[in-house]
Structures are given as C-alpha cells and as structure tokens.
Amino acid sequence: MPQDTFIITLPPKQLPVLRGWQVTPAHLAYRLGPGPHLFRADSTAPKGGLMVVDDRDFDGLGPTGPLCQEILGECQARSFSGALLDFENRLPPLEQIAGQLDERFARRGWSLYVTERYAPHAPHARVMIPSSLSGGSLQRRLEEALERFGESRVVLALELRREDFFLPSPTGCGQPLTPPELEELKRRLAPAVFFSGDLCARYFTYMSRDSGAHFVLFDDGDTLRRKVEVARRLGIRTFLAPWEDIAPHAARLGIQRRQEQRPGRR
To answer: I need a labelling partner for 9 at 20 to 30 A (CA). Which of 30, 44, 86, 196 fits?
Structure first.
C-alpha cells in the first residue's frame, strides 16, 4: 500500500513537538532580502528536512545567480533535502530564482516545492495545490492539477480556513476569522451548519442589518480528513500543512507515530 508523506511547516524552535511523528519538517526560518541575499529568521540553525523561503522582503533588485548559490550552500550545510518556495509576489526575478533552483536541485536529487504560478518556470518541482476553495469542487480542482502536472508532482497543501464572505462575493475572498471569532459567531447566531461535499468544508449563512447576507466557510479536523481522503483516492500521497493547524488532528489525518526503539536484552 502506498505510504503518505506529510511535510510539516513550523519554526525551528518548535521542532521538538514533532518528536515521535513520521513527518518531514519544513523550517520556517528563511527569507529573501535586499542584495539580494538569503537571511535566516533567527539564530536557530536547523538540520535536515526542508527549508522554507519567503519573499516578503524581496525588492526584485540585484543578480539572482549569487542568491541561488547561497540557497544551495545553506541546503548543503544544513543537510536539507530540498526547499519550499513560499513566494506570494509575482516578479520576473522570482521566476528566474525558481527556474535556476529547479535545474540545480534536480541535478543533486533534491526536492523543490513551488506554488502553482511558478510551476511553468520549474518543470521538475513539486506543485503545491491549496485545499481551500470558495467555489467549485476540490476533486475536480485536483483532477485538473493531475492532468497538468502528473501524479508525481502534485502536493495537497492543507489549510484550516475560516472566512466570512459578503454575498454576493465577486472576488471569492472573505474576511478571515480567528478561532475565537468563529466560535463567538456560532454561539451568538446558533446557525444551522452544513457540510459541502464539493468544497469539503462546513458553512452557514446569516443576515446582518448593517451588511446584509453573509456566508461563513470553515474547516475543522473532519473536513481536513475528508480533503486528504479525496486526494488519496486520486493517487495524491504527499501533503503539506502547518503544524499549528493540524496538531490536534494529526492522528485523524493518518499521520503515523514512529516506532520506539526498545533497548536490547543483555
């Protein structure tokens, strides 16, 4: 039976919480900055797993070749097996970085993970498909991704989503809710909560005197499990998730515990 691979994102200081779980850590410890250069978020120096690189401080200026060499050197020094490019902006230099790293990682047998918008620039990379939708069908979304990228490249990126949408919602974007805000809304409104089989998410609606009709879409441990099951049925066996989102639901999602080594008898 095929085995699942769970990649868990978390800061290096929290790494001890993964002890005992069969997961691959992805360290939230690196960012692109002016120069451009690779910067570490703090003094913690993780070893093994994957590095996560974000682009929040990247201004798009400067040559990309030396920066890619810095990333390669850090992966080698820290025994990383690959990198996850958490790029939110869309800049030509970022496309160049993804392409250069894709080629160099592939030569070394390392894994590269990119968001869907960067997939055309990194043909060897694994492609992260978000689990959250505000419309359509998760199964169809994953089927389309498989048609484009192939089974070996698609990764389901699990998200614990909580959003309040105004209706109609032409952009498909809602107001994010914190867990306490969602619970307070449910307590105050006592709404009828429904499950969407297409979205694999729970939802309810309500009316506000000030802002009109609302649609609240949210996830819990059960909806995350159902999303994982949809992906498994399609042959997708690699999952990415923030530990803070899935920690209470790890066993339900099928993440296995490591077998403890028993001391041998003398």
So the answer is: 196
